[in-house]
Amino acid sequence: MKNDIIYLAASLAAQNEIYLAQLKQEIELEKIERIIIKTINKFQDEAMNAKDLKIPERNVSRTCIQALRWSGWYCIRHQQSMGSHDGLSDYQILKNGRCIFIEFKNSEGGKKSTAQKVFKHDVEKQGFEHRFVKSVDEISDLLER
To answer: CA triplet 95, 99, 104: central angle to 5 degrees?
Structure first.
């Protein structure tokens, strides 16, 4: 009986230590995530405040996709090629049953083609979200875990 109690106490203590270690890891990951998002926003704010600075679409998309992935989004890159749907978005992102199509533009907004506007309309008509994105600020609502 005494051995059973000692074994149970040791087992509970070990489980508690494992739980505390996992909790510390989660807290550290959340801190790192907040630092990364703050850094991304800082650099993007500085870039947006610089006069006559145009951030290329590829930089906007890299920054946004990295932030989305850190926030748990599954990001699918759509490759444009012969036979692709006209106006197909750059990315499709998925999380918790939510599906959003994203078309990235340079920091000045870029030009939206007629095909892209039609694709956005058709996607939204099917009940999905579609966004034209030119900065991390425009996806900040998606960056929370």
So the answer is: 105
Instruction: With beta carbons less than 8 A apart as the criterion, state whether 96 and 103 touch.
Output: no
Tokens (6 digits) for 66: 């990295």
Nearest CA to 58 out of 116, 134, 132, 130 is that of 134
- Cβ within 8 Å of residue 116, ≥6 positions away: 87, 89, 103, 132
Domains plus CATH for the chain?
2-142 (3.40.1350.10)
pLDDT value at residue 106: 81
Report how far residue 86's alpha carbon sits from residue 103's, in angstroms, rounded to the nearest whole number: 13
DSSP string spanning 107-125?
TT--PPPHHHHHHHHHHHH
Count helices and strands in the chain by DSSP H and E runs:
3, 4
Whose CA is closest to 89, among 105, 98, 79, 101? Answer: 101
pLDDT of 4 reads: 61
Contact status, residue 54 vs residue 107, Cβ threshold 8 Å: yes
How high is the pLDDT of residue 47? 64
